[in-house]
Amino acid sequence: MKELVDILIEKKITIATMESCTGGGVANAITNIEGASEILKFSAVTYSNEYKIKMGVCKKVIDEYSVYSRETADEMSRNISEFAGSIIGVGITGKLNRVDINNPFGEDNVVFISVYDSRNKKYYNENVEAVLGSRKENKELVIEKIKEMVLGLVK
User: Fold this and answer.
1) Buried b (16+ CB within 10 A) or exposed e, 8-45
2) d(Cα 143, Cα 139) in Å, to the nearest integer?
3) Which of 1, 30, 52, 102 has the fewest CB atoms nearer than 10 Å to its CB?
4) pLDDT digits (tens, 9 = 90+) for 61-75
5) Which domains does the chain have, with CATH numbers?
């Protein structure tokens, strides 16, 4: 993560995250690096549909595609970027080794990642199959993928 933070600082590119299943893990990994306050604008952990909607995710998108979808991840990444005024927004939603009784739709053990670049209003998407043994291992897998995605965008 140090390489990513250093590049973002050098290029004066700001980032914000709206995380669900990673529980703030991306923001934590960024803030473990000295100087992160120069580039991390804001981070929200929106575990519930209610708070995703309060942070700007369109309820119709959740209702139509499910909270576990690329479309919801896109809503999350764009809205957090706009809310924070950051160049890059990251949205993460998915299921990690758990059935969600409040949201029975959507694929199990798939995490949807969206990275939004506000400079060209473009989304970059990846899905990660969360099939490793523990929740912690799956979170680490997702965080690594996000790091790779953002590095690929800013290098």
Assistant:
1) bbeeebbbbbbbbbbebbbbbbbeebeebeebbbbbbb
2) 6
3) 102
4) 999 999 999 999 999
5) 2-154 (3.90.950.20)
> Do the Cβ atoms of 151 and 140 come closer than 8 Å?
no
Structure letter (DSSP) for residue 97: S
pTM: 0.93
The pLDDT tens digits of the residues spanning 108-145 come to 689 999 999 999 999 999 999 988 788 899 999 999 99
What is the C-alpha separation between 142 and 25, in angstroms, rounded? 9
Residue type present at position 44: A
Q: Rounded to the nearest 5°, which phi and psi values hold at 95?
A: -110, 135
